[in-house]
Design a protein that fits this description.
782 residues; 8 strands; disordered C terminus
């Protein structure tokens, strides 16, 4: 009886936490949502600090009947671009390209991992995750290799897939007699197919929206600056080279290589970018399968289904897909490495070596997706494997029987060293080529990181200090940790209330389910390193979401009484309905094309100034971009640099004998010399984005060289190098903050940008055909 009371008390405590947290979650104001974003006009409907999720939910009521339809969303996002099912055929080519590449990767992974995963040690879902994950990583490395060799072609991209098909056929013929081998499965629950059907029904609209949303043309800053811009440049050049003007393209680029492969198959960088985004969205779907497989093995099928629903319905999952952040791949490989590491901790000697190797391949792939993978995946997963092996005790999953779990394998020094070498070697197999590439290009394997250790071509101490300042936490005030934790748990616009609501009660079961304790240690590691070593933006903690989702599913095992479980399912259903509505509001989840006409003359994903530039600047002409690096949509050739690279305009025009002078006061070379440099590089237009320069010069931002001032361009106009500019974008002077207005007016000739309540945000200069005197070229009056 006392045991029964104890169980009831735990269930009641868990339920009170869930109710209390969800109440807080839906009442907390969101930092990036304004009343106008959801159609609110009266101040009393929103809190003093912003709009709450309850206020957003109330906006769903007028159109509640449309919630089940994932394609019935705010049409204002399309900016008068037609939309409907008649445009579905436009998506077919993108779907075919993505499907071909995914199938090729899966086949490659099937062949590579055929002898690394014993059919008796993994389930069908676990095997599929491993095969697809290893295959996508291998395909990415293949594209890197052929790109460096200037062999980017359709046949080269598809070659490993074709070879994998032949290898799979041969292997299938040879293994005909072993097909009776049974694939492992986690303990079955007594429930029938009802929960599976219900979960599939709940996930269907989210999957449809995710797939269609992924085929939205690139619109995010980082994506148009380097995630897709780098592959675009390499595709147009026909090879992968060091891009000294875009430091971000020297990161490990696992995801971006898949986008480059899509561009090669489509033979077009525009359509290839869309096909690539669709292919990258498969990481989110694979993570859903991985979360299901992990939770199912350790906590049962119902837990697996809940975990999958929690992960896939999280707004961040959708947002990653429609934007194509590298966090999509990093998140998947973290989830997959955790899955296989847990498997290794319960496996006997015959399987441990292979699972350590597979885990190393997946962990290394996480670092190949993004440098932080070394800290968030490689280090904790490697330590987990070493520690659990050294304990001399297997991690037992519920339902394991003496027939499936034998004595732990020997844990002497030699087996430990052998497995550690296997893990490290597998990590190097997947991330090593990126380190070699950077060593060849810059002399620094992790360029631009660790400059003080390795140095780096085309980098300097000044750039390194700016980089560290822009990518490190501003402080380590421990008193602010609760605030950051609240930001992660509830105040992030795109998080899911079910993550912390359901995951936290699972901690009450850490003695009953050992995997819970290890998963919570992973969560604490992720959040601690995010706080300690990053600049604490939301998407840097995204990879923790699948681990939290597994723990949310595990919570099901805490509630054994039917009434409690009904309440849990009601909470899951309510949050799913909210998340579906949230996904459908573009100003909340992010722009999605849905079934928009992708061939419309005016695309809402292309900035208006670039639409103008594409009309003004002929294809094949070259424009020097000053303060502008978001150049993916340019249909003309561009010369640009990111904010962390050496400023090209400064390098071309500053007087070489005046370097010791502060940048703002340096002299320019004579106008004829500037004209000669522009002609040498075939530059016929110069575009200056003063709005972006202003953003970089704001306090706390990355900073921007003081050399670039309006005075210099006025002098080049007066000197006959540039023609009088045209304004591409006007800004509202009165809507700028006092600090921003003061900053602009402090620039040399800054007043020349201000005109009758507006200011020149972006302007374009045509390079003069010949050099003329100052008298012939009027100076623009302020």
């Amino acid at each position: 009886m006392s045991l029964r009371r104890s169980e009831f008390a735990l269930q009641l405590a868990g339920l009170l936490w869930i109710a209390g947290f969800l109440w807080y979650f839906f009442n907390v104001p969101l930092p990036n949502v304004s009343p106008a974003d959801i159609g609110l006009t009266e101040n009393h409907e929103s809190g003093a600090d912003g709009v709450s999720r309850f206020a957003i939910w109330r906006q769903f009521y007028p159109g509640w009947h449309s919630l089940p339809n994932p394609l019935d969303f705010d049409t204002a996002q399309t900016q008068n671009v037609d939309s409907g099912w008649k445009y579905l055929p436009q998506r077919i080519p993108y779907g075919l390209t993505a499907a071909i590449l995914f199938a090729s990767a899966w086949l490659i992974g099937s062949v590579v991992t055929r002898r690394l995963t014993s059919p008796s040690s993994v389930t069908h879902a676990e095997r599929f995750v491993i095969q697809a994950g290893v295959g996508l990583s291998a395909l990415s490395l293949w594209v890197l290799m052929i790109g460096r060799l200037a062999m980017l072609s359709r046949s080269a991209v598809l070659l490993p897939g074709v070879v994998a098909v032949v290898a799979a056929v041969v292997a299938g013929i040879r293994s005909k007699q072993r097909r009776a081998e049974v694939v492992a499965d986690s303990p079955r629950e007594s429930a029938g197919r009802g929960p599976v059907v219900l979960a599939a029904f709940a996930l269907a609209p989210f999957v449809l929206m995710l797939i269609l949303g992924a085929m939205t043309p690139p619109w995010d800053f980082d994506v148009r600056e380097y995630h897709m811009q780098g592959p675009k440049e390499w595709f147009r050049n026909g090879r992968i080279t060091f891009l000294e003007h875009n430091v971000y393209t020297s990161f490990p680029f696992l995801s971006e290589m898949l986008s480059l492969a899509a561009m090669v198959l489509d033979n077009d960088w525009r359509s290839g970018a869309i096909s690539g985004k669709l292919l990258l969205s498969s990481f989110q779907l694979l993570t859903t399968v991985c979360v299901f497989a992990t939770a199912r093995r350790w906590f049962g099928r119902s837990a697996g289904l809940i975990a999958a629903v929690v992960y896939l319905t999280t707004p961040w999952t959708f947002r990653i897909s429609i934007i194509a952040y590298a966090e999509g791949a990093l998140t998947f490989y973290l989830a997959a490495a955790v899955m296989t590491a847990l498997l290794a901790a319960r496996s006997t000697a015959s399987n441990q070596d292979r699972l350590w190797l597979v885990t190393g391949l997946l962990a290394g792939s996480a670092m190949a997706a993004k440098y932080p993978g070394a800290l968030s995946v490689v280090a904790p997963v490697g330590l987990f494997l070493l520690f659990t092996t050294a304990r001399r005790r297997l991690l037992i999953a519920p339902g394991d029987s003496p027939d499936t779990v034998q004595a732990p394998s020997p844990t002497g020094a030699r087996p430990m060293i052998r497995r550690a070498v296997l893990f490290a070697s597998a990590v190097l197999i997947t991330v090593g080529p990126w380190l070699v590439k950077n060593t060849i290009d810059t002399g620094n394997p992790v360029y631009p990181l660790l400059y003080s250790v390795f140095g780096g071509t085309d980098w300097s101490e000044e750039l390194n200090l700016r980089w560290k300042a822009g990518h490190s936490p501003a402080d380590h005030n421990v008193h602010q940790i609760p605030q950051y934790l609240a930001d992660v748990a509830a105040r992030s616009d795109w998080t899911n209330g079910l993550l912390f609501a359901l995951a936290v009660p699972s901690f009450l079961m850490w003695r009953r389910f050992p995997a819970v304790a290890w998963l919570w240690l992973m969560v604490l590691w992720m959040l601690s390193t995010w706080w300690a070593f990053t600049h604490r933006i939301d998407r840097f903690w995204i990879p923790v979401i699948p681990v939290m989702s597994v723990l949310a599913g595990a919570c099901w095992q805490l509630f054994s009484d039917r009434p409690f479980r009904i309440v849990i399912l009601a909470a899951v259903a309510a949050c799913c309905v909210f998340n579906l509505g949230f996904w459908k509001i573009p100003r909340l989840a992010g722009f999605q094309a849905g079934l928009m006409d992708l061939t419309a003359p005016v695309s809402p994903t292309i900035r208006s100034d670039f639409s103008q530039m594409n009309r003004i600047i002929p294809a094949g002409a070259t424009a020097l971009m000053v303060g502008e690096a978001e150049v993916f949509d340019a249909q003309f050739d561009t010369i640009y640099n990111t904010v962390f690279d050496e400023n090209i305009f400064e390098r071309w025009t500053e007087a070489p004998d005046d370097i010791a002078t502060p940048a703002r006061n340096r002299r320019m070379v004579p106008p004829p010399t500037v004209s000669a440099v522009l002609k040498e590089h075939s530059v016929s237009f110069v575009v200056v984005n003063w709005s972006e320069i202003l953003r970089y010069r704001q306090p706390g931002s990355y900073g921007f060289t003081d050399y670039v001032q309006p005075r210099r361009f006025n002098e080049l106009v007066a000197g006959g190098v540039l023609e009088v500019p045209a304004t591409l974008t006007h800004g509202d002077w009165n809507r700028l903050s006092d600090a921003d207005r003061g900053e602009i007016l402090s620039w040399d000739d800054g007043r020349s940008l201000v005109h009758d309540g507006s200011w020149t945000a972006i302007e374009i200069y045509r390079v003069a055909d010949d050099t003329k005197t100052s008298a012939q070229r009027p100076h623009r009056s302020p």
